[in-house]
Structures are given as C-alpha cells and as structure tokens.
Amino acid sequence: DQQVKQNSPSLSVQEGRISILNCDYTNSMFDYFLWYKKYPAEGPTFLISISSIKDKNEDGRFTVFLNKSAKHLSLHIVPSQPGDSAVYFCAASDRDMRFGAGTRLTVKP
Amino acid sequence: NAGVTQTPKFQVLKTGQSMTLQCAQDMNHEYMSWYRQDPGMGLRLIHYSVGAGITDQGEVPNGYNVSRSTTEDFPLRLLSAAPSQTSVYFCASAREPEAFFGQGTRLTVV
C-alpha cells in the first residue's frame, strides 16, 4: 500500500518562475511531512519539513503547505533556479518514514 | 564529519549468493533504516530500527535481514540474492523529523 503519492513524475519550469510540487497521503497518523532533494549518484538530502499541527512552513525560496483535510501537501519554490533541477521526494513520518515516487524538476534557463 | 557511511558503493552478485551491505552513522541517532530505490517506485522502506536490539519490517522486507547490535551500525543482509533485488540501496539515520542518507549502494544481481 503506497501511503505517500506523487502523481507527477516530472515538471519543467522556466527560470525565475514558481515551481509547485504536489504530494498526497492516506495515513492520517503521520505527524511530520518532509521534502527531500536528490541529485544523481547521491543520497537524498533534507530540504524542508512541516509538522502536522501547522499549515505552512517557509525557508527562503522554499515553502511547504499542508492541507490536512485533503491529505495533501505541496512544495513551492520561488523563484526557481537552474540549480534546483533534481528529483524531489515527498516523505511522511509516524513510527517510520515513507516516501513518494518522486518528481523530477527541470528548471530551464 | 562522516554522517552516514555505506559500503560498498557498487556490487555485482550472482543469483543465490549472499552478502551484507554495511551502514554506519556517527551522529548517535537511535533511528536507522534501509530503503531501496527503483525507477518509478521512489524509495521503499525495507527494514528500520528505533534503537539497538530493536528492528521492524517496512514495506518490502522479504529477502532481507537486519540486526542492530550497536547504535552506530545497521547492516542489511541478503541471504540468497535474486535478480529482483537489483536496485540502489540507501541507508538512513534520523533525528526527528529529519533523515540523513548515505551515498547509496548500487547492487546488480545477475
């Protein structure tokens, strides 16, 4: 059972514009939601997180929004930069941490 | 500042062979886990541990064994490798809520 879903395998945006990556989950017991960034041949690295008691968390160009009633979260990157091109994984944690399938973001100069 | 160290980085096995993927962390984290990454499937949890002596199964545990005798080490054992276990394996340790990942082990079973 895939408890965390990222339905868009890829996203392409122009440099300077907003990137919006989406994630849905099914388990209402998750208490933290996270986004990780992954470059080829490297392990994922932590980007930003949000507690289940909040609906927004911002860190520089990155903002995560959580809609608990819809079991949906999103990552906004503004403005997008070519160095943001990577695979982004959504994750959710309770006793363990589950990941989505990832979205490959390409930011074009 | 090593963080999470995985060895080896690459491995080719023949079907039926056994091997152990090593994982060590120097951050004194209680929580450690193993994931496999396959195209279109993301990161799937194999096994995890919430402390020395405690392990539990994740989403895809079949064909893998783990043990946690120390806080630092969390090895993953393949007792009889199968081609379906060809994948990239990541070890992680976590300090809630953030997980820190190793560089990965690319395993090919022929």
Comma- or semicolon-separated keywords:
heterodimer; A: six-stranded mixed β-sheet; globular; B: 110 residues; mainly beta; seven-stranded mixed β-sheet; four-stranded antiparallel β-sheet; 0% helix
SSE blueprint:
The complex is a heterodimer of chains A (109) and B (110).
Chain A: E1 4-5, E2 10-14, E3 19-25, E4 32-38, E5 45-51, E6 56-59, E7 62-67, E8 72-77, E9 86-93, E10 97-99, E11 103-108
Parallel strand pairs in A: 2-11
Antiparallel strand pairs in A: 1-3, 3-8, 4-5, 4-9, 6-7, 7-8, 9-10, 9-11
Chain B: E1 4-7, E2 10-13, E3 19-25, E4 31-38, E5 42-51, E6 54-57, E7 64-66, E8 76-78, E9 87-95, E10 98-101, E11 105-109
Parallel strand pairs in B: 2-11
Antiparallel strand pairs in B: 1-3, 3-8, 4-5, 4-9, 5-6, 7-8, 9-10, 9-11
- Pattern of helices and strands of chain A: EEEEEEEEEEE
Shape of chain A: globular
How many strands appear in the DSSP assignment of chain B?
A: 11
Q: What portion of the residues of chain A fall into strands of 2 or more residues? A: over 45%
The total of beta strands of chain A comes to 11
Explain the overall architecture:
The complex is a heterodimer of chains A (about 110) and B (about 110). Chain A is mainly beta and about 110 residues long. Chain A has no helices and 11 strands. In chain A, the strands form 2 sheets. In chain A, strands 2, 4, 5, 9, 10 and 11 form a 6-stranded mixed β-sheet that branches. In chain A, about 35% of the residues are buried. In chain B, a hairpin with a 3-residue loop joins strand 4 and strand 5 (about 40-50). Chain B is an all-beta fold and about 110 residues long. In chain B, strands 2, 4, 5, 6, 9, 10 and 11 form a 7-stranded mixed β-sheet that branches. Chain B has a 4-stranded antiparallel β-sheet with strand order 1-3-8-7, with no helix packed on it. Chain B is built from no helices and 11 strands. Chain B has strands at about 5, 10-15, 20-25, 30-40, 40-50, 55, 65, 75-80, 85-95, 100, 105-110. Helix content of chain B is about 0%, strand content about 55%. The chains are: A mainly beta (about 110), B mainly beta (about 110). The interface of A and B includes residues 51, 93 and 102 of A.
